[in-house]
Specification:
Helix content of chain A: 40-55%
Oligomer: heterodimer
Largest sheet of chain B: 9 strands, mixed
Number of helices of chain A: 4
Structural class of chain B: alpha/beta
Distance between the termini of chain A: 37 Å
Number of domains of chain A: 1
Number of strands of chain B: 9
Strand content of chain B: 25-35%
CATH architecture of chain B: 3-Layer(aba) Sandwich
Order of helices and strands of chain A: EHEEHEEEHH
Strand order of the largest sheet of chain A: 1-3-2-6-5-4
Shape of chain B: globular
CATH class of chain A: Alpha Beta
CATH superfamily of chain B: P-loop containing nucleotide triphosphate hydrolases
Order of helices and strands of chain B: EEHEEEHEHEHEHE
Radius of gyration of chain A: 18 Å
Shape of chain A: globular
Distance between the termini of chain B: 13 Å
Chain lengths: ~160, ~200
């Protein structure tokens, strides 16, 4: 199983969730579409697309829920012919995060929901508070940026 | 909200192309998509209507390669420009690290440009983002149209660019100005990150 984390503290609870709930793909992301951890994807760019779409589904379903019920929906489930998706928010003191899980007949919605609750608790307990960002890039990063962009656009 | 992973040395940034309807936001992404090699981009996702008007957003993930020892990835989004998609624009703008405002250079579109710029500021404010400090680049698109139909860069600057941010004339359909715009906003976003603002560290 391919596993990658941007935020290390997400890894233990997500690994447990993937194993216990027997999901094919799992993503933990910020509602803005930024990925924190993923399991099941092989290409980073595919992860970004999945995150963008998951964030969009969550945002639009939330607004729809507010229109219909006066509050955002708590989660979303869609059953396809072969695969199903489950998307729900996790509230932590640091931020709200989203979890997207894709599963097939090896699992079930009930099982995913059961272990999602454990995952939520694990993420809420592990999420650190935001920290002040230290300077990241070297002072001359523009040279490398320009070189890479020129290469991307075939201008190198 | 840039994501920086010190362990794997990765940076991910979100850039949103904003502007009035039919100003050329999606065209910018299409041009970039057409230029970038397959192994450096993801699939371009377009949530559009049957007539190809953007309904929710367009999305293009790009791998910029190694910058200062960090694998740097950009997520390019567009918003739907039509006035009645206000809620959607606000949602897509969430967590943006930088904004490209794509203005339509046609003289008859000036009011729409101004209204969209005001809408951008209002939505940034609703997200708690100071519009005066967010990395912003303006692109004056459709500068290839006949002179009598469009405003000059100076005229557009007077109407839209009161912050004096970098601004580029462009013809997004054929490419001029697209690269320069992306390079400029990338630089502003990474400069801000380099200065240590707003990102989440791991």
């Amino acid at each position: 199983m391919t596993f990658a984390v941007v935020e290390n503290w997400v890894e233990p609870p997500l690994r447990r969730f993937v194993d216990d709930a027997r999901v094919l793909i799992a993503l933990v992301l910020h509602p803005s579409g930024q990925v924190l951890a993923q399991s099941g994807f092989t290409r980073a760019v595919d992860v970004m697309s999945a995150c963008a779409l998951a964030a969009a589904i969550h945002a639009s379903a939330g607004e729809l829920g507010k229109m219909l019920e006066g509050r955002a929906f708590g989660g979303l489930h869609h059953a396809g012919r072969e695969r199903q998706i489950f998307l729900a928010p996790v509230l932590t003191p640091r931020s709200t995060f989203l979890v997207l899980a894709v599963f097939d007949r090896e699992s079930s919605l009930g099982l995913v929901q059961l272990y999602f609750n454990e995952l939520s608790s694990g993420i809420a307990a592990a999420a650190p508070l935001p920290v002040e960002q230290a300077p990241v890039l070297a002072n001359d990063f523009e040279r490398e940026l320009n070189r890479n962009l020129a290469a991307l656009f075939g201008r190198a | 909200m840039s994501l920086v992973n010190y362990a794997t040395r990765e940076i991910t940034c979100k850039i949103v192309y904003y502007g009035p309807g039919r100003s050329g936001k999606t065209t910018n992404l299409h041009y970039i998509y057409g230029q970038v090699p397959d192994d450096r981009k993801g699939k371009m996702v377009s949530l559009a209507t049957q007539t190809d008007r953007t309904l929710f957003f367009d999305f293009l993930p790009l791998d910029l390669g190694n910058i200062s020892g960090f694998t740097t990835k950009f997520q390019l989004y567009t918003v739907p420009g039509q006035v009645y998609y206000q809620t959607t624009r606000k949602l897509v703008l969430q967590g943006a690290d930088g904004v490209v405002f794509v203005a339509d250079s046609q003289a008859r579109q000036l009011d729409e440009n101004i209204e969209s710029m005001q809408d951008l500021h209002a939505n940034l404010a609703e997200h708690g983002i100071d519009a005066r400090t967010v990395p912003l680049v303006i692109q004056y698109n459709k500068q290839d149209l006949p002179r009598e139909l469009i405003l000059s860069v100076d005229e557009l600057d007077d109407a839209l660019n009161f912050r004096g941010v970098p601004a580029f004339p462009a013809d997004a359909l054929h490419g001029p100005g697209v690269f320069e715009t992306l390079r400029s906003v990338s630089e502003l976003v990474l400069k801000r990150l380099s200065a240590g603002a707003t990102a989440g560290a791991r």
